[in-house]
Design goal:
about 160 residues; alpha+beta; about 25% strand
Length: about 160
Amino acid sequence: MKVTLKRLKELRAHLIKEERILASRITVDVLRDLKKRKLCYFHIKKKQIVGFVALWPTVEDHWYELGTMWVHPEFRQLGLSGVIFERVSKLVPEGASTFLITKSRKVAHVARKAKWDKAPLWEKSGNWLSLCRPKGRRDDETSRKFSLGSELFYLISPHH
């Protein structure tokens, strides 16, 4: 199935409802651009997008943030997150490294299962923005989503 404009709009509608996703960076144009640049993966079942994940460019050309990992509520608990994680890992540009920061124990578990390492330097410094600040993400928005009181998991891809 081709990922059409209609499907991208439907996906965006789902993504912006999720509490743990930075909704302000999700637009149809951005999704279209990620698709064009082969920096995202759409998991399709029953002619609908039921899973999504993206590699977000950062201010450092050789770093990408693995983010916006999502599975449709009706398809959760079926092991799709592992499949989605594996697929997006294959999209990382040659010579690049990938990181993720998440509040989700499930996402952290999937990453650890894929041999991603904890990033203790980032945990201790609390200043990951200076290392690989994602392009287009405002620091104040990030601070609200990932408040200091939250339990965060910082992970780095195996080939960093």
